[in-house]
Amino acid sequence: METVMIKKVEKYIEQYHMIEKGDRIVLGVSGGADSISLFFVMLELSEKYNIDIVVVHVNHGIRGEEAKQDEEYVQRLCKERGVEFECVRVNVKELAKQQKLSEEEMGRKVRYEAFAKIAKIYNCNKLAVAHNQNDVSETVLLNLFRGSGLKGLVGIEPVRGNIIRPLLCVERSEIEKYLLERNIEYHNDATNFETNYTRNKIRLKVLPYVESEVNERASEHIAKSAGILSQASSFIDMEACKLYKRCVKEQDGVFEIRLESFETGHIILQREVVRKVLFAIAKKQKDIEMSHVDSVLELIKRGAGKRVDLPYHMEAIHYYNKVVLRKKTLVKKEKLEKEAVIPGSIRIPGTNMELSFELITVEEENRRELEKLYAVKKNDYTKWFDYDKIRNTVLARYRKTGDYFECNSNGNRKKLKDFFIDQKVPAEKRERILLLADGNHIIWAIGFRISEYYKVSSGTRRILKVKVDGGNEHEG
Asked: pLDDT value at position 195?
């Protein structure tokens, strides 16, 4: 028996190419009206599309006996209709405390992790979730009230990656009517009627008031506007990506926005570029609002030398021709790569340090005493090395990816990064520790230690003596 809602959903699926013949689809089914209607709609369409479905129910461990009844009901529905069923039980409340997230956020996180896990086990290529048109309007209002930009006003996308939302075209009232007409039971989650959740406040108080006092079709109109904004957002995003490529440069987690190119873009594109940079640094979007984007744009107007603090320990600094955005713990490295002058000396730019180099040829009769002689020499800022073991030009520089040294006489290597972590050297200080390097092999981390490989031994024929003046700047 095909209903008006089924036809509507089928047309929506075709419009967004949600399902292809032969798909294997995970359905998230909680037991509520939305997910139960999704279950029956997908059952009706499964023959037409020749699809297989696997139902996943996530028990959040919050509602006790009610949650158990939901689980048993969904399991029974699946068993009666020969549908694969999997239940994942998680203590959301405990996990939320551990990870310092709200129960809402944690619940969403564990649901999608469970869906992905079961999809892999059953070799499913898509995930269907039961968001409806009312969810779109709630999301739009929630994001609007929080100060979201255009992306947030798009609401919920019909298709995102392998996630499909076939019911996004129907209102909650249509879903309830569909279930009533077919005499299909569903369970109400009591937490959906508690106003201590922000989204519930919008669902239970804000939207009903607007629909009764302003326009009874407000929710529908908001959802349709979100669809139009989604198209506009896609176009803007495409243009913003072009501007981003022209003006943004990233190295080691530090982002530079070159103002000469950036300021050629429209203000809307500038906002999107800044937003993309902030998302890339924070690696998340939550709590990054329009006000933060605008504070970066305002920083540009205020002139060079100004800075602004941002969420997730980020900061933006305005230099003469660029704005630098980074985590506060990251300090941009000075570009330094000075060749040693042997014999001779070099000065280190930006410091009061000077390194002097002396080459000592060892006479045959003195070689036996070398190891003993240099083993007792304890001086943090004068070191002696086996010069003939050095393969490349000796460079004075700051650290790079791949740097290492030999940490013992057995030739075992240790990454320089791991050494600094073991020594509890703060991240920002690691970037300023001067190194003597032979390629990626660190001869000496000044103020810390030398590589065992370059130590003077009884076989050494030539010794490189290195002395650092002003070296107390780099004490560990």
From this structure: 60
Q: State mean pLDDT over 125-132.
A: 94
Average pLDDT over all residues of the chain? 87
The pTM of the full predicted model, rounded to 2 decimals, is 0.58
Residue 207 has pLDDT above 70, yes or no: yes
Q: Which of the four pLDDT bands, split at 50, 70 and 90, describes residue 84?
A: very high
Q: Between these two residues, 198 and 5, which has the higher pLDDT value?
A: 5
What sign for the dihedral angle of Cα 5, 11, 13, 16? negative
pLDDT of residue 304: 73
